[in-house]
Amino acid sequence: MKNIILASSSPRRKEILEMIGIPFQICPADIDETLLSEETSEQAVLRLSGMKAEALSGKFPGSIVIGSDTLVQAQLDCRTHTVFGKPVDEKDAHRMLKILSGQRSVVYTGICLLDMDSGQRECGYATTEVYMKSLSDAAIEKYICTKEPLDKAGAYAIQGAGAVFIEKIQGDFFNGVGLSVSLLSDLFLKMGIDLLDLHPENRDAPP
């Protein structure tokens, strides 16, 4: 059985993999995550997740690397879209949350699997719609004081304190957190691996 490497330092992705019982190691990829001016959100998360997986190329023979990236896109009107990565500071977090206040946004998460031996590459992305309540400046500042928004795409976390701001979500909850389990499973199946076979209860079962 191949080793699995998560090319991310995200505690949310780590928790999701632990939740479904996958044995894995963590080796964060160091890449330039600057968005390109002409690319769509779909293109951006696929490109960045692929870059993260490829950044570990040659370092882990016998392994499959998981690269992943998340962006939040808000549609402000019928023509204008704004894409958010992680805020650079508290002022930027306030700006993002002010724009997202009372709006529907879409969370895009890309996943790229790369087999270090064969070079096989399986990539895809998933989307989740998030509807945020209207937020006062005071509520935004209280949330920023928790420090939670500072390393989150869009400056909020639906699985953390930011949940108090969420009216509803449509789509894959785990994708909104940062890693679609459904998409991850589908991509591993394309590589001939059933994630349930990696669960401790199945790994330890007698043949």
Radius of gyration in whole Å, from Cα? Answer: 18 Å
Mean model confidence by pLDDT: 91
The major β-sheet equals: 7 strands, mixed
Coarse shape: globular
- Secondary-structure element sequence? EHEHEEHEEHEHHH
Number of strands: 7
Instruction: Decide which structural class fits the backbone.
Output: alpha/beta
CATH class: Alpha Beta
Euclidean distance between termini CA atoms: 15 Å
By DSSP (H or I, 4+ residues per run), the number of helices equals 7
For the record, the CATH architecture stands as: Alpha-Beta Complex
How many domains?
A: 1
Might you state the CATH topology name?
A: Maf protein
Helix content: 25-40%
Into which percentage range does the β-strand content fall? Answer: 25-35%
The stretches of 5 or more residues where confidence is low (pLDDT under 50) are none
Detailed description of the structure:
The chain is α/β, with parallel strands linked by helices. It has a single domain (3-203), classed as Alpha-Beta Complex (Maf protein), CATH 3.90.950.10. It has seven helices and seven strands. Strands 1, 2, 3, 4, 5, 6 and 7 form a seven-stranded mixed beta sheet that branches. Helix 1 links the parallel strand 1 and strand 2. Helix 3 (90-100) packs across helix 4 (137-145). The longest helix has 14 residues, at 41-54. The protein is globular, with a radius of gyration of 18 Å.
